[in-house]
Amino acid sequence: MKISHRIAASRPLATTAMHGRVEAFRNEGMGIIDFSIAISHFPPPAPVLDAVTAAVQEERTMPYTGVAGALDVRRSLCTKLQRENGIDAKAGEIIVTNGAKQALYEALYAMTDPGDSVLIFKPHWPAYVTTCQLLGLTPVLVDLPDQVTPATLGACPRADLVIINNPHNPTGKVYTKQELEAIRDWVEANGSQVIVDESYEHLSFGPAHTSFATLCDWRALGVVTIFSASQSYAMMGWRLGFALAPLEIAEAMQTLQGPITAAASHLAQVATVAAFDCGPQQHMIDEYRERRDTVLRHVREVPWIEMKCPDSGPYLWGDVRALTHDTEAFAEALLAEEGVAIMPGDALGVPGFIRIGYICDDTWTLMEGVRRLVAFGDRMAARR
Predict the structure, then answer these.
(1) How far is CA 267 from CA 51, 56, 112, 228, 351, in A?
(2) In this structure, are residues 160 and 192 in contact, taking their beta carbons and an 8 Å threshold?
(3) Domains 5-38+299-383 and 46-278 belong to one CATH topology
(4) Separation between Cα atoms, residue 126 and residue 13, nearest integer Å
(5) Lesser CB count within 10 Å: N end or C end of the chain?
(6) Parallel, antiparallel, or unpaired for β 306-307 and 241-244?
(7) What letter would DSSP give residue 37?
(8) Is residue 187 within 8 Å of 221, Cβ to Cβ?
(9) Has this prediction a pTM greater than 0.90?
(10) What pLDDT sits at residue 27?
(11) Where on the phi/psi map is residue 168: left (φ > 0), alpha (ψ -120 to 50), or beta?
């Protein structure tokens, strides 16, 4: 039996691997509290459920659509981009995908050749590096500065393509307009193309989100912007996403998507339109802010962890270097001793940190998980 060298040399995506382990433990009856991933306790918006129900009841068959998505769906997403992001786009520049991961894979595949370099700021969403490795690309990892300036960018190596995650997973950073303008000037000077992941565009707790494409000639520069319904609309398992790309890149992405999945399912496309028509879900943002602040108050006096208050997103990013730099071992021991799953910073490019998804389950379960985490860390500190 032969397994290809390219897949044999690859590792499963860290986030999905940990979530799979948690699911396996739960199937065995173990009460695991899962902070390793962010799965909202909210239901999807009612208009989404209504639209999908109506589609099931009113249509005898669920039709195949064009690979990029039904024309009316893509036109609706163009309206969303104009209304919410200030981006003028045409339907041919939109491709509907099975979540942000598919859009990322297809964009990287279409925009690069094996051996090309991809600059990624760390900590990073693990899929960026893993996808680059699968495609034979060279990830170039650079520390994400507190503030992006021409000087910090000037110290970065040139790359064929740059990935920007705004708002940022896991730190919660929301790039300012000035920072994005500095990135624009830098990539233009270097002749780099850009993928901008704006999956968390509606999860800001205050700072305004600016779409990178509004600050440049995105068609000429070669900018692909990725959007997702997963976190903003509590629809993680629905696998809904889309990408905005210059026509040549969008068509190349379609060429790849055709033999892989063809179009996203008809029902997923119906749900995508309904979700993005809903706009920001303020009730979700308000509760996430309250949960964020509650956890931060609880750990404020814990000597071995430092957590900055994130400006966005479903994660808290904790510095535990005062306790250990080996956060993989920390995460394994925490899971074994306390039944709490977290994501070690090693998987996101920065050992000595941990990522906590704080939007799952009820508030009591959230705080019980935090209590167990603190108790575990206190025991570890006492043994040192």
Answers:
(1) 9, 8, 32, 16, 41
(2) yes
(3) no
(4) 7
(5) N
(6) unpaired
(7) S
(8) yes
(9) yes
(10) 80
(11) beta
How far apart CA 314 and CA 309 sit, in angstroms, is: 12
Residue 323 in contact with residue 335, Cβ under 8 Å? no
Distance CA 228, CA 200 (A): 8
The domain limits of the chain are 5-38+299-383, 46-278
Report residue 1 as tokens: 């039996």
d(Cα 346, Cα 46) in Å, to the nearest integer?
38
Question: Over the stretch 101-141, which tens digit does the pLDDT of each residue have?
Answer: 999 999 999 999 999 999 999 999 999 999 999 999 999 99
For residue 301, give the DSSP letter. Answer: T
Which residue ranges in the chain fall short of pLDDT 50? none
Q: Please provide the CATH number assigned to the domain covering 46-278.
A: 3.40.640.10
Q: Note the helical H segments in 265-339.
A: 266-278, 282-299, 327-338
Task: Say which residues have a Cβ less than 8 Å from residue 181's Cβ, sequence separation at least 6.
Answer: 215
pLDDT score, position 28 = 77
Q: Give the three-state DSSP class for 189.
A: helix
Q: What is the CATH number of domain 5-38+299-383?
A: 3.90.1150.10
Size of the chain in residues: 384
To the nearest whole percent, how much of the chain has pLDDT over 70?
98
DSSP string of 52-78, one letter each residue: HHHHHHH-SS-----TT--HHHHHHHH
Cβ–Cβ < 8 Å for 165, 124: yes
Task: Please write the tens of the pLDDT for every residue from 30-60.
Answer: 788 999 989 999 999 999 999 999 998 887 6
Confidence (pLDDT) at 14: 66
Q: Is 153 left (phi over 0), alpha (psi -120 to 50) or beta?
A: alpha
Q: Residue 357 is encoded by which pair of tokens? A: 């998804």
Check: CB of residue 118 under 8 Å from CB of residue 160. yes
